[in-house]
């Protein structure tokens, strides 16, 4: 894969320093050494200068840049030297030997903080520095682009494109050293990695990084969609109070019906325990006559 396809993931600051360039990256992110892409001299090498003056080979250019021992798990053959993930031990000075030319690259590996800010809200980037009698410039950059700059000597400020009239520091910064930057009206395009530092004598100091994400705006009641259905808790309906009353009344009526039926039934029972006769049952039984035959009645 071509090295330039990784550039969107890299946070590289090309800042001319005495004796070389500076490259910044956040720990854990990929990092590219851009000067290696311009070198096409076969046999070129990239060396990392370690503490104590010794050096360690990082990569060598053959047809493409190939990783040296110790970097094969973090680098693939490529048109430039790209470490797939950086760590704090990668920080330091690197020497690129390309033919007869030698270049120096200083890599800064920075541990960043993270924040998430709702769209439309203000974001604060905390930064403190000793400002009493100090010269130099306080700078804030996002993805290598200027956001805000303050001249610590004159107090004059400048703002980057897209950040006009949205950035500021506290007016008492000179007396208390509070250079916290406030960014008003955060937009989705403001997301990214912010680097804060003081530039003095072409050297950067107190380098800090903040990775900011922009979350969806929090809607206020006035901003809600009028078509949106909202559920508001309602007090218990008074009609529901009749339900238990109705059930109680029905049970009472059933109980009364049972009692009345029992009393009616008892009224038909004689004192001796036998059932009282009805009117039809109390009529005397008569002996039925057998029809006469030839004028004489037959007896049974």
UniProtKB/TrEMBL annotation:
InterPro entries, alphabetized: Ig-like_dom_sf (IPR036179), Ig-like_fold (IPR013783)
Span list, region Disordered: 270-300
Biased composition (Basic and acidic residues): 289-300
Keywords attached to this entry: Membrane, Signal, Transmembrane, Transmembrane helix
Transmembrane residue ranges: 241-260
Signal peptide: 1-22
Name the UniProt record assigns to this protein: Uncharacterized protein LOC117546024 isoform X1
Organism whose genome encodes this protein: Gymnodraco acuticeps (Antarctic dragonfish)
């Amino acid at each position: 894969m071509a090295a330039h396809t990784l550039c969107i993931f890299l946070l590289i600051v090309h800042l001319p320093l005495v004796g070389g360039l500076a490259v910044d990256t956040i720990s854990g992110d990929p990092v590219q050494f851009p000067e290696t892409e311009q070198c096409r001299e076969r046999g070129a090498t990239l060396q990392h200068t370690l503490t104590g003056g010794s050096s360690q080979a990082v990569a060598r250019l053959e047809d493409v840049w190939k990783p040296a021992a110790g970097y094969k798990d973090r680098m693939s053959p490529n048109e430039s030297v790209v470490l797939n993930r950086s760590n704090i031990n990668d920080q330091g000075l690197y020497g690129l030997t390309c033919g007869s030319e030698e270049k120096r690259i200083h890599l800064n590996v920075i541990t960043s903080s993270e924040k998430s800010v709702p769209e439309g809200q203000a974001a604060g980037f905390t930064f403190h520095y000793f400002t009493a009698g100090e010269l130099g410039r306080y700078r804030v950059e996002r993805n290598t682009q200027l956001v805000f700059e303050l001249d610590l000597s004159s107090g004059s400020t400048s703002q980057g494109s897209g950040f006009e009239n949205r950035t500021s520091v506290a007016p008492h910064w000179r007396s208390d050293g509070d250079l916290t930057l406030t960014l008003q009206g955060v937009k989705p395009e403001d997301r990214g990695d912010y680097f804060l530092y003081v530039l003095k004598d072409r050297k950067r100091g107190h380098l800090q990084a903040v990775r900011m994400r922009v979350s969806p705006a929090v809607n206020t009641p006035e901003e809600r969609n009028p078509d949106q259905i909202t559920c508001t808790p309602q007090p218990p309906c008074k009609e529901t109070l009749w339900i238990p009353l109705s059930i109680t009344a029905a049970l009472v009526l059933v109980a009364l019906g049972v009692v009345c039926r029992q009393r009616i039934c008892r009224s038909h029972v004689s004192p001796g325990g036998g059932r009282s006769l009805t009117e039809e049952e109390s009529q005397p039984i008569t002996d039925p006559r057998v029809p006469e035959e030839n004028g004489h009645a037959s007896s049974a």
